[in-house]
Design goal:
The protein is mainly α. Helices cover about 65% and strands about 0% of the residues. The chain folds into three domains: about 130 residues, Leucine-rich Repeat Variant, CATH 1.25.10; about 70 residues, no CATH class; about 140 residues, no CATH class.
């Protein structure tokens, strides 16, 4: 798609107007344009227009701000759009205004700003871009404070926390001081809101990449119980099996419902997989008979349509737990996998 240079110039002039009545129709045009692939690709090739729309994300006129937020959010659904956002936001002027908008009383602006940040942080480069702005742990702590207030307009902050934990520096912030921030995310694994649960699950999964913290994570059964509880159903287990589980997962009531969102289940199983990276982690998961929960989870989900990836992840962990450990390798992250095997595993995972 291409716009004639005269038409493009006219649109730029409309966006540069100081009159909201002139700006709004132009923003409406770009908002509609961003809903198509060709339109989106056109917008992320126009730096002047994109930067002006970014400025409007914090415009005093909320209707214009919402249109600009929708346009940039649509663009950031595309990986190229996210990279273009970062290129236009080198000084974090837009990212700063998005976080500033959380102080806005307009719930629509707050939710739209959170959605845009969530889109930007889905890829690791975007997560690093946002981390560079919120590097100060005080800002992170203030975000967590408004998140745990449990107000509906802030619930999707959980998705941002899960995304930015792709960055090692963020994971260390979450895990420092005996997991002061990390521990506050655990109750949200069982929250009634699916976005809260998904963000918390991704946060836990990503933090489990930090193998230096596994000993702390598994010093007792509390963190493991928080991960396992959503994966458990109301199956009748033997007394021996129940007694071997973390105490909060023992003898669950007959009306206990298992997590139903596939992405959340996969993230939690992947967290268990990462905890299996070290010998100490594998020993702990065996001690608390995690296999029993995964066995029942597999039975309950294996026949669901489109569940191949979930089944793959569950079977990965089960095979580790019931298999023999490589005596010469304590940390599986350091285990060298032959190229032909690695290729086959990748093909299976992407199938």
């Amino acid at each position: 798609m291409g716009a004639p240079s005269t038409e493009l110039q006219e649109l730029i002039e409309l966006l540069n107007s100081e009159n909201p009545r002139i700006i709004q129709p132009a923003c409406e045009y770009f908002s509609g344009l961003s809903g198509t692939v060709d339109g989106l690709n056109f917008i992320i090739a126009q730096e002047d227009i994109f930067k002006q729309l970014m400025k409007f994300c914090s415009f005093e006129n909320s209707d214009i701000a919402l249109l600009a937020l929708k346009t940039i959010t649509n663009c950031a659904q595309n990986e190229n759009g996210t990279y273009f956002y970062m290129a236009c936001d080198k000084q974090h002027f837009c990212t700063k205004s998005l976080f500033k908008s959380f102080e806005n009383g307009d719930e629509r602006i707050i939710k739209s700003s959170i959605l845009l940040i969530e889109n930007i942080t889905r890829i690791e480069a975007g997560a690093r871009h946002v981390h560079a702005f919120i590097e100060d742990s005080k800002l992170l702590e203030s975000l967590l404070k408004i998140f745990v207030s449990n107000k509906p307009q802030y619930q999707d902050l959980s998705l941002i926390f899960g995304n930015i934990c792709q960055v090692p520096g963020v994971r260390k912030l979450f895990l420092k001081n005996e997991g002061e921030i990390f521990n506050k995310m655990l109750p949200f694994l069982s929250h009634q809101n699916a976005s809260c649960r998904l963000g918390a699950a991704n946060c836990v999964k990503n933090c489990c990449f930090e193998t230096d913290y596994h000993q702390w994570m598994l010093k007792d059964d509390s963190i493991l119980a928080a991960i396992l509880l959503p994966l458990a159903g109301a199956e009748e287990l033997t007394d021996e099996e129940n007694d071997s589980l973390p105490i909060d997962v023992q003898y669950l009531p007959s009306d206990k419902e298992r997590e139903s969102v596939s992405d959340i289940i996969v993230a939690l199983v992947q967290a268990l997989h990462k905890l299996c990276s070290t010998q100490m982690g594998r020993d702990a998961l065996r001690k608390y008979n995690v296999y029993v929960i995964l066995r029942e989870l597999d039975k309950a989900t294996i026949e669901r349509d489109g569940n191949e990836n979930m089944t793959f992840e569950i079977h990965n962990v089960i095979q580790i737990l019931i298999g023999d450990d490589a005596a010469e390798c304590d940390d599986l992250n350091k285990l060298e996998v032959p190229p032909e095997i690695e290729k086959k595993l990748t093909e299976m995972e992407n199938a």
